[in-house]
Structures are given as structure tokens and as C-alpha cells.
Design goal:
With about 150 residues, the protein is an alpha+beta fold. About 45% of the residues lie in helices and about 30% in strands. It is elongated, with a radius of gyration of 20 Å.
């Protein structure tokens, strides 16, 4: 059985960035409430921008927090933040594709799997452990359903 789970280092780093951004937002709002050392436009723009970035990062972290298991001709997805768990047979896979991008001399891979009940999931090699084993399992068991290269 192959178990893919989120990497702790990735979520630790994202949490640190999130903490820094929230600290900056608190500092700006506190400065506005007490000292007002900048103009009103600065406070409006910076607080809005920081809030949007914090929310986008939170949504990214929450959406990517999933556990995927594969084995015995089945794929199980578990989304603990939504309280959902679903098991699919390999025959329910409509298509799957792996995208590869090279950035900063590192290879970033993202796998997308679509199922017959119109659901899909994505996972990447930088955010999940056992990514390569899962891709090899899909190639071996469901290679015909891979989307051909463009």
C-alpha cells in the first residue's frame, strides 16, 4: 500500500510565512490605531494586501492538506479538514496526467487524477511524500488512461 501524506517541512515553512504575514498585519493595524505615522492610503492598501495574501495562503494550505492511499486496485482519498473520505476503484479513473515544470534548476511535478463521479485531486512532489511511488503505481495499473503529451 502506498500512502501519500503532506510533507511536514512544507507546512512548517508555510506556517512560518503565515505567522510573519499575520504579525505584519497586526503591526500595521496597531500602528494605525495608535501612532498613525503613515498616510491613510498606505494603511488601507497594505492592510488589504496583507489580508488577501494571508487568506490565499490559508486556502492553499487547507486545500492541499490531503492523504492519499493506493493499493489493491483502489485509491483512497481522505480530506481531514472537510471530514471526507472516499475510495475509488482503478476502473473509475477517467484520466490522469502529470505535469513537469523546471524552475530554479529544480523539477516541480504535479499529478492530476479525474474520476467518473466528476471529482478530481491534485498532488505535487514538493508537498507530498511517496509521490514517485504513486505515479509508478498509476503507470503500472492504469497507464492507458494517462493523457497523452501535448
Amino acid at each position: 500500500m502506498i500512502h501519500c501524506r503532506p510533507k511536514k517541512n512544507t507546512y512548517f515553512s508555510l506556517s512560518l510565512v503565515l505567522l510573519i504575514l499575520i504579525s505584519g498585519l497586526i503591526y500595521i493595524l496597531n500602528d494605525f490605531a495608535t501612532a498613525r505615522s503613515f498616510g491613510l492610503i498606505f494603511y488601507l492598501v497594505s492592510a488589504s494586501l496583507l489580508t488577501v495574501v494571508v487568506l490565499m495562503l490559508l486556502v492553499k494550505m487547507m486545500a492541499g492538506y490531503k492523504f492519499i492511499s493506493a493499493g489493491k486496485e483502489k485509491i483512497t482519498t481522505r480530506l481531514p479538514l472537510r471530514g471526507q473520505s472516499k475510495t475509488y476503484d482503478l476502473s473509475e479513473i477517467l484520466a490522469w496526467d502529470e505535469e513537469k515544470i523546471i524552475a530554479n534548476k529544480k523539477e516541480f511535478k504535479q499529478l492530476t487524477v479525474a474520476f467518473s463521479d466528476k471529482t478530481s485531486f491534485t498532488m505535487s512532489n514538493h508537498e507530498h511524500v511517496n509521490y514517485e511511488e504513486f505515479v509508478q503505481y498509476l503507470i503500472k495499473k492504469s497507464g492507458k488512461k494517462r493523457v497523452k503529451n501535448r
